[in-house]
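Ticket 4471: requesting a sanity check on a complex prediction with adenosine-3',5'-cyclic-monophosphate. Repro inputs:
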Amino acid sequence: MAGTYTLTIIKPDAFAAGKAGKIIAHLEQQGFRVRAARVMHLSQDQAGEFYAVHRERPFYGSLVKFMTSGPCMPMVLEKDNAVAALRTAIGATDPAQADAGTVRKLYAESKERNAIHASDSDENAEREARFFFAESDVIAAR
Ligand code: CMP
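Returned structure tokens:
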């Protein structure tokens, strides 16, 4: 999967606000293809494990609470150089700092409630995709 796939999550803020369709359309417009998708309500354990790398950060508890506040939408996206391309497309963590036209500038509420997650490396894309999907769930490009 390295290089051409990444993992994204439309977070509970954006999903609850009915922005999932607009965000997917925005990403498809930029050449991303949805290869796997599901809607799920993360448990405390799942959100805690997914964001375990942030366990020592002051915002960890609040982040887990937010990510378990309602359904979210994990997806595997495909595009050349997918990890870097998606991080550019979504913009900075804080929507106030995000470039115009990015997903977070358009749809995020705050630094925490920031609409969308994107893997930060090919290694994490692989790990995160496997967190949500079996290999057989991912539709290979033809
Ligand atoms: P994400 O890209 O999913 O990675 C970690 C998440 O933690 C981030 O998006 C935000 O939702 C959240 N986050 C990062 N920094 C902060 C912060 N300073 N305060 C609150 N939440 C944060």
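Notes from triage: The chain has one domain: 5-40+72-140. Leaving this open until the requester confirms.
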